[in-house]
Design goal:
The complex is a heterodimer of chains A (about 425) and B (about 375). Chain A has about 425 residues and is an alpha+beta fold. Chain A has helices spanning about 5-10, 30-40, 45-60, 75-100, 105, 110-135, 150-165, 170-185, 200-230, 260-295, 310-345, 350-390, 415-420, and strands at about 15-20, 60-65, 65-70, 135-140, 140-145, 185-190, 190-195, 195, 240, 250, 295-300, 300-305, 390-395. In chain A, the strands form two sheets. Chain A has an eleven-stranded antiparallel β-sheet. Chain A has a two-stranded antiparallel ribbon with strand order 9-10. Chain B is built from twelve helices and eleven strands. Chain B has helices at about 70-80, 95-125, 130-145, 155-170, 205-210, 215-230, 230-250, 255-270, 275-290, 295-310, 325-335, 345-355, and strands at about 5-10, 20-25, 30-35, 35-40, 45, 55-60, 65-70, 155, 180-185, 190-195, 200-205. The chains are: A alpha+beta (about 425), B alpha+beta (about 375). Chains A and B meet through helix 2, helix 3, strand 3, helix 4 and helix 12 of A and strand 1, strand 7, helix 1, helix 2 and helix 3 of B. Bound molecules: zinc ion (ZN). Zinc ion binds next to helix 6 and helix 9 of chain B.
Chain lengths: ~425, ~375
């Protein structure tokens, strides 16, 4: 009943170590149902303990080179961090509010200003949140860590974002790679520092797919439309709708059958087709990026090697989408049936109270169903896809990793991310 | 059951090297490997939440770990170690306590939002600088306009002159913090709204429904009462403070945002009973002083409230729900000596009633 000694398999520096994840997901539904319901009755406060429980679940079932990871964070730390973040954020919000209403010239930029401040704070929080998660992660008793400055990271993020705007998005892969390098180069396993050689260049091709599918057709259709209108869009193209609400407009029928109408329709249909296509491309890009970032990460002679395929990212979303469609269909049938019954029974019977009750339970049940489904299908499957396609090359080198004597960061690090809603309350990833 | 040896790996917490060891469960957990002989006290052991059959145990609070995949040993450890899953909240009674405390905290935050924030707003409203209040009033005015569907402003010059004279008479020595700015908008709801910065929006149906000039003036004086008490600023501060607090603390994981919406609606539905009574008192004083019928406010309140019960869509006056009680109070305060007085003569009132002449009548209603 016991496994053979692993001495033979563990010898040799150049062997590779597998990363596995328990795909049976036993017990996950219970965790998610309990977490959702308790979060509901505790006005959302339980969510910190729920996230902690989820992380503990995912970390412990991810086995790297034979040893499971370990999460030592607690809900209490997250909750206290959140309280501190709220105490910091309230004055910030109040200051922004007072500044915009007391200085008229500022009022025009009010939303831009608050967006900028919250964006920088958000990036700061993302980095600090990652630091918390790293410091609460152990493997073979060795604690991970992250140093570097969250302020530097936030400034880098805002600088790169501005550059991305100025270059019409072309700088985006370079931004992603640069931030990834900063994150990985400041990640420590014990006292050993990780290193990333991620390059934006190598991401450019998958990123350009968005341009081919979304950007170019729209530009083409827009140009055709502008040529058709002689670069002079008539301002009576839309006229107020007769008998409609104020502000409601309709297409001016004077332009029916003109090239303006034809190419206008072409432009609108191009927008309607390319945007969903662009959305469909996101998992493809994310999978490419993840694989590239994984392959670029190393720790001395140890490095990661990922064979992640885009379809492994599509499948979870596909399953989730199908479930949503199925749920909506069933809901439509139930509501339709209820409405029919209501018509035959009449409003005066006590029946419509039953319908209201049914709707309340339907809403709660639906929310519960989707919360659980999201964790089981999207979170767990994406996690499993990334973990199981990754191999630790030269895993023998990990034996040389020594524990670090640095101080463990406080739990206050992640609160800001939750308060700003940037970390995503349910983010379990690393 | 004789203890049998189980193979596992040990890591010392100092390096990531995995040492092959054999484990034997006796009075303690005995770990033997190359140059290694440990005995861990069972009461100290804590296990990780790993997927069976893999198990990881170590002395609580220390970084040493041993990992193995033997189900018999795992079961035996679970039997004999009292605190094996001590870090797991579900194992202790901690979760119930946590839930109860969280519910208490949530209720206290909601209580703070409903009772505490308005109390703070009362203190804060008078110290808001007039310029800021005026700017806020402008913003709210635009918002209200959008909600009502941008109703046109009624501005017939002779009627406006009558209205301005009436306002001047009513606000003289009225102790208002700002000069009120009254706009009349064509709308099929009989109501008047007071916004921050002394803005009062009168919807034209109020003038149409008023049978005497005193009924209209009584409502106007009531709104001036809100201006005098700075009620709109107070309500705005309270509503935004409460909704900010609720949405910040409750987070967005669950359906709690619905609660936020409900809370906001409950909070911003109107002024408190005390604020309404104070505005009624103010109205009675102004009407008595400026030569009007102080009881006319009670008359129009009762009439509009009666219409409301049948009305298809709820009037904004619904935020004044204690009609009968208020009417009695107004009549008691006003007495009988002002009954029958008219604040405007017949010609002036007829002119005022035509204030919407400048706006073309709507085709279909
Ligand atoms: Zn009132």
């Amino acid at each position: 009943m016991s496994q053979p000694p692993m001495t033979e398999t563990r010898s040799g520096m150049d062997r590779s170590g597998a990363i596995t994840f328990d795909r049976t997901l036993r017990g996950l539904t219970g965790v998610a149902v309990r977490g959702f319901l308790l979060s509901l009755v505790t006005f959302g406060i339980y969510r910190f303990w729920y996230v902690t429980e989820l992380r503990r679940y995912f970390w412990n079932r991810t086995v790297v080179d034979g040893s499971p990871a370990e999460y030592s964070g607690t809900g209490k730390e997250l909750f206290l961090g959140f309280l501190v973040a709220v105490a910091i954020l309230i004055p910030v919000y109040v200051l922004i509010f007072v500044a915009t209403i007391s200085a008229p010239w500022l009022a025009a930029f009010g939303s831009l200003l608050s967006f900028l401040i919250l964006f920088v704070l958000g990036q700061f929080a993302v980095y600090r949140g990652r630091r918390y998660r790293a410091s609460r992660t152990l493997w073979r008793g060795i604690r991970l860590g992250q140093d570097g400055s969250a302020i530097t990271y936030a400034l880098m993020a805002i600088g790169w974002s501005l550059l991305t705007l100025l270059t019409l998005g072309l700088a985006f892969p370079f931004m992603r790679a640069s931030l990834e390098r900063y994150r990985i180069n400041h990640t420590l396993i014990g006292s050993s520092r990780m290193e990333s050689t991620a390059r934006g260049r190598s991401l450019l091709l998958p990123w350009l797919a968005f341009y081919v599918v979304v950007f170019l057709p729209i530009v083409g259709a827009l140009l055709a439309f502008l040529v058709a209108t002689d670069f002079n869009i008539p301002d009576d193209l839309f006229v107020p709708k007769e008998g409609g609400k104020p502000g409601e407009t309709e297409f001016n029928s004077d332009y029916d059958g003109t090239p303006i109408a034809t190419f206008g329709a072409l432009l609108l249909s191009t927008l309607g087709i390319t945007f969903p296509l662009g959305l469909l491309l996101i998992p493809f890009y994310r999978a490419r990026e993840t694989r590239l970032f994984m392959n670029a990460a190393s720790l001395g002679s140890v490095h990661l090697s990922s064979t992640l395929k885009a379809r492994q990212f599509y499948w979870p979303y596909f399953v989730y989408l199908l479930s949503v469609i199925g749920f909506v269909l069933i809901l439509g049938l139930v509501i339709g049936g209820g409405g029919l019954l209501l018509q035959t029974q009449g409003m005066e019977s006590g029946f419509h109270w039953m319908l209201v009750l049914g709707m309340v339970f339907g809403y709660l049940g639906g929310a519960l169903f989707f919360a659980v489904l999201y964790v089981r299908v999207i979170t767990a499957r994406l996690w499993a896809a990334v973990a199981t396609t990754t191999v630790v090359e030269n895993a023998g080198g990990l034996d040389a990793v020594l524990a670090s004597s640095r101080r463990v960061g406080s739990g206050l690090n992640e609160g800001l991310a939750d308060a700003l809603d940037v970390g995503g309350a349910l983010e379990v990833g690393f | 059951m004789p203890a049998h040896a189980v193979y596992g790996t040990y890591s010392d917490g100092l390096s990531a090297r995995a040492h092959p060891v054999t484990l034997v469960l006796e009075d303690s957990l005995e770990i033997t490997g190359q140059d290694l002989r440990l005995a861990w006290t069972l009461a100290d052991l804590a296990a990780g939440d790993t997927a069976a059959p893999l198990m990881r145990v170590g002395p609580a609070g220390r970084a040493e770990r041993v990992e193995f995949t033997d189900e018999a040993l795992a079961a035996a450890l679970k039997d004999r170690c009292p605190d094996l899953y001590r870090s797991d909240p579900s194992a202790s009674g901690g979760r119930l306590r946590l839930v109860l405390w969280s519910i208490a905290a949530g209720i206290s935050v909601i209580g703070l939002a409903i009772y505490g924030v308005p109390a703070i707003a009362v203190r804060l409203a008078p110290v808001v600088p007039a310029a800021i209040e005026a700017r806020l009033g402008g913003a709210v005015d635009g918002q209200i306009g959008k909600i009502l569907g941008d109703p046109p402003v009624c501005n017939d010059a002779p009627a406006r002159a009558v209205l301005d004279r009436l306002i001047e008479r009513m606000t003289a020595n009225g102790g208002l913090p700002v000069d009120p700015a009254i706009t009349v908008r064509r709308h099929a709801i009989a109501n008047a709204l007071t916004l921050p910065g002394g803005r009062v929006v009168v919807l034209s149906d109020l003038i149409d429904q008023s049978r005497t000039p005193d009924e209209f003036a009584g409502v106007l004086a009531h709104e001036f009462g809100h201006v005098a008490a700075r009620d709109p600023m107070r309500a705005l501060l309270a509503a935004s403070g409460s909704s900010f607090l609720l949405s910040l603390v409750l987070g967005d994981l669950t359906g709690s945002t619905i609660l936020v919406a409900v809370g906001q609606a409950a909070i911003s539905a109107g002024y408190s009973r005390e604020a309404e009574n104070a505005a009624d008192t103010y109205s009675v004083e102004v009407m008595s002083r400026s030569g009007g019928d102080a009881t006319a406010l009670a008359t129009i309140l009762e009439r509009i409230a009666k219409d409301d019960e049948k009305a298809e869509f709820a009037s904004l006056l619904r935020s004044h729900p204690f009609t009968k009680e208020r009417a009695n109070r107004i009549r008691a305060m006003a007495g009988t000596e002002t009954v029958g007085r008219r604040i405007l003569d017949e010609t002036e009132w007829a002119t005022l009633k035509g204030i919407c002449r400048n706006v073309p009548a709507k085709t279909a209603k």
